[in-house]
Amino acid sequence: MILQYAVENDILNLDDVRRKIMRQENENYLKMHEKHHKIWFDEKANQWMTYIDDPSTKRGIALKRRKEKADLDNLIIEHYRAIEEIPKVSNVFYEWINLKFEYGEISPQSKTRYENDFARFFSDDNLICSKNFSEITALDLEMFIKGNIKKHHLTKKTYGGLKILIRGIFKYARKKKLTDIVISIFFDELELSKNIFTATEKKSDDEEVYNEEEIPLLKDYLLKKDSIRYLGVLLVFVTGMRVGELAALKPEDIQLNRKGSFIHVRRTEVHYSEINAQGQRKNVVAIQNFTKTDAGNRHIILNNFAVQILQRIQELNSAPNEFLFEENGKRIKIKGFSEALKRTCKKLDIPFRPMHKIRKTYGTTLLDNQVAETLVANQMGHSDVITTKKYYYRDNKTTEHKQAEIERALSAI
Question: What do you get for the CA distance between the two ends of the chain, in Å?
């Protein structure tokens, strides 16, 4: 009633209101853009420049330039206005993922993984990628999922990555009233035959862990090298640490005393990519000041041999800049430890398995020696022993050992 009275008596001009609303919307578009892309003036080209999101390009962005700043601003505004009016899957995805990252809901490496998965699964030749979002039907989505499973030979496990993206995109789209599809109900009703998935080929125990004959050879060689990175590899054999956790250790994380020695694991090395102001995708290696999971923040109990290794490491890096593992004042990264292990295996003529397989060897060794399952899970940084036993327990006995066990068991027959 008040608004109608104001309009009828020329107290309020609706055209002025519309202009003010549009100006505010335009300002919001520009602010939103500058959160993700820099706007700069190139003196050599004598033009204003910026990048805008463009999923159709290989890098996911496109360079835009105008002589006048106002013209570039208008181009940016029209870009975002068009997205709001006719959004596609790619528009919704990038808006969703950027918001999650902005509010700290996902880490940089998770953002990179989601972006890589999106580029892999949501290619331009998919029907739902070319449609306006509001026109995507449940049948379109079902065909899209089945097509990707077949095209990329997805296993039940790798299908999980696609499912996470679809859930996030469609939940966010429903909040924006862009779709009537309730994604939780859609997945409850979706029927996928087990035959549609590619069977996972289980790796042999020999590929997953170092065996009981190889471990002493590795131990002796790594000790003789007496190098800080080689001793770091050896430390994983007696602590079960993730190599990213190893690379992020600081001197204050180590507690060596008579009452009990331990390592406090509380950070890890991470890898992700980001786009700089020039639109170039750059790989980043950084230290994340929290562990991979909540259970990963733990105190690893050390045996006497682990204490001896750490004492020697402290001697070799007696005046660290910041990290426990440094050479020439620079932190040793994951790659440095992996290369040391690779060279060791080559020298000893032992099949190379990555650093993570040492972690599995550690878990196997503890369980084989009847260490309490809850303690094993704590040492590994798992929330429960089920994970440890399912993914980290393998048979690392030699063929001769296995034959002897069978012979002994069947000796009464």
Answer: 99
pTM strictly above 0.85: no
Contact 216, 398 (CB under 8 A): no
Give pLDDT tens digits for 184-229. Answer: 999 999 999 999 999 887 788 788 899 989 999 999 999 999 999 9
How far is residue 94 from each of residues 62, 97, 192, 381, measured CA to CA in Å?
A: 15, 5, 28, 33
- Please name the helix (run of DSSP H) or strand (run of DSSP E) that holds residue 40, with its range, or none: strand 39-42
Question: What's the CATH number of domain 205-408, 2.60.40.1180, 3.90.470.10, 1.10.443.10, 1.10.220.110?
Answer: 1.10.443.10
The stretches of 131-213 forming alpha helices (DSSP H) are: 138-151, 156-175, 183-189, 205-208
- 139-142: long-range contacts at Cβ-Cβ below 8 A with a sequence spacing of 24 or more? 141/166, 141/170, 141/181, 141/186, 142/190
What is the DSSP code string of 209-273?
S--TTHHHHHHHHHHHH--HHHHHHHHHHHH---HHHHHT--GGGEE--TT--EEEE--EEEEEE
Alpha-carbon torsion angle 192, 193, 195, 196, nearest 10: -20
- Quote the mean pLDDT of the chain: 88
Q: Which helix (H) or strand (E) holds 359?
A: helix 355-368
The pLDDT of 140-154, averaged and rounded, is 95
Q: How far is CA 370 from CA 59, 218, 262, 364, 391, in A?
A: 52, 24, 21, 10, 18
Distance CA 84, CA 95 (A): 11
Reply yes or no on domain 90-196 having CATH 2.60.40: no
